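not sure who needs this but someone in the group chat was asking about Tricarballylate utilization 4Fe-4S protein TcuB from Falsigemmobacter faecalis so here u go. i didnt clean anything up, its just raw.
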Amino acid sequence: MSFETPGLINEARRQIEICNACRYCEGFCAVFPAMTRNTDFAAGDLSHLANLCHNCRGCSYSCQYTEPHEFALNVPAILAEVRQDSWERHIRPAALARAFHSRGVAIMGLMVLVIAVFFYAARSGGEGSFYAVFSHNTLVALFLPAFVLPLLSVALGLRSYWRETGGRRITPGDLKGAFASVAVMKNLAGGHGEGCNFEKENRYSQRRRFSHQAIMYGFLLCFAATGIATLMHYLLDMPAPYGLLSPPKLLGIPGGILMVLGGVDMILSKLKADPTLGAQRVWGGEMAFVALLVAVAASGLALYAATGSTLMPGLLALHLGTVLTLFLLLPFSKMVHGFFRLAALIVEQQKKRG
């Protein structure tokens, strides 16, 4: 499917109104109970439903109105398109998001290569400590703005999305409900807890849920490892590298392994899934993003294994290239979906309480 935004919204409204009249899939996931609150669907209502959707596809495999029926419903695909459109409209500049999702592999590969070559050419030392290769101050000067500025772009986009979907003042209960759902990937378990139909069509599977959990918790462990390492550097005067039993390694190594395992499994699942039930125009960008996550984690693990060897400077340059690329592409890659989905879950908690 490929629509300009007005046509996309009109087609989404047509399909959702048919679903709302049928209600056969009411217990499948969070989208369908949320749908029943409305009789008319504004663009903001559709954006909200789309960001609640996890593209599990169970509704499509159960639907009596998919093609060749004249209604030709494809709810997972149309919501995937609306979801993608919401990110592109609210994150600025939108042209960068569209470019990444249409040429994701090429853009990602080129950025990693250029940045890694830059770091390797700019190295100031040889083997041993990371900071013998690149000074700590240099890395902070490069990575701090590359992390903060994309987050600012995401924050501005979320503010716009929040207004469009009717978000209100957040309460502790809103946060509790939303984070509880995220923690267990509740919506990827389906309405009955049996999983979703992403890669096995009409058979339920928990595989996609587990791969998402592995990536999310792996990323959080790696982020925590970096945070603790920063505190150790500044507060305890303990610069890297750190030993196997140090807090950064006890968190970072399992985190990296989880990210690699979850990312590879997600790639395999996406290769098995029916592409017509998603946003086909952004398939390459989605795969590039998952591959980038795997590259970040795998290069980090390889870097630790090579510490003190002649391979370390090259692997450090590669790892820094993947991490900096991830940061710079944050607002424009599918990484942004986590922020929008959390916002949708918070809004949903608010709508439930009236």
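also The chain is about 65% helix and 0% strand. if thats useful
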